Amino acid sequence: MKYDNPRVDVHRLYDDSRLTAIGLFAEVHAGLMSRFAPALSAAGLSEIDFETLIRLARSPGQRLRMSDLAGQTGLSTSGVTRVVDRLEREELVQREACTTDRRTSYTVLTAAGAERLERVLPQHLQDIEDLFTGLLGADELETFLGTLRKIRTIVRPCATAGAETPSPCEP
């Protein structure tokens, strides 16, 4: 399709630094995930399995409410239920009912789940160092992390749900 608006310089439109920024970000994310996949796969974990387990491991008491886990992973309620069901069948997590609110249940990392993470983490951390953080100086990394947190606060406000008091996603 030809763009016929004479008031718009099409080449300037296509050569916008905003397109470059999001394109580079998407390419880097996709490239990193594909490079991380072999180590995760060798441990019998998908990307979302690993994300779920590491979020539980890094949470207070190695547990999160199901709703907070959904918020942190960006999955729908039914999506997180399917992931937790699968991880529970593998005995990597377990569900616990809340003693004070019958409507709430927690997902808790099990010893087997922690062991699976401990098996994959040395290689995963080395991959992160080799392909990402090790390419940046200390100041660059600190600035980059601050920038990512600033953006995350806007695009995924529930990414720390359950890790803060009160949660940004609680009504």
Percentage beta strand: 5-15%
CATH class of one domain: Mainly Alpha
Helix-residue proportion: 55-70%
What's the total helix number? 7
Major sheet: 3 strands, antiparallel
Just name the CATH architecture of one domain.
Answer: Orthogonal Bundle
Q: How would you state the average pLDDT, rounded?
A: 90
Distance N to C terminus: 47 Å
SSE string: HHHEHHEEHH
Account of the 3D structure:
- This protein is mostly helical.
- It has a domain at 45-155: Winged helix-like DNA-binding domain superfamily/Winged helix DNA-binding domain (Arc Repressor Mutant, subunit A, Orthogonal Bundle), CATH 1.10.10.10.
- The chain contains seven helices and three strands.
- It has helices at 10-14, 17-42, 47-57, 66-73, 77-89, 111-131, 138-155; strands spanning 63-65, 93-97, 105-109.
- The chain has a three-stranded antiparallel beta sheet with strand order 1-3-2.
- Residues 166-171 have low confidence and may be disordered.
Strand and helix layout:
Blueprint: H1 10-14, H2 17-42, H3 47-57, E1 63-65, H4 66-73, H5 77-89, E2 93-97, E3 105-109, H6 111-131, H7 138-155
Antiparallel strand pairs: 1-3, 2-3
Helix pairs in contact: 2-6, 4-5
Organism: Nonomuraea maheshkhaliensis
Protein name: MarR family transcriptional regulator
Domain HTH marR-type: 1-153
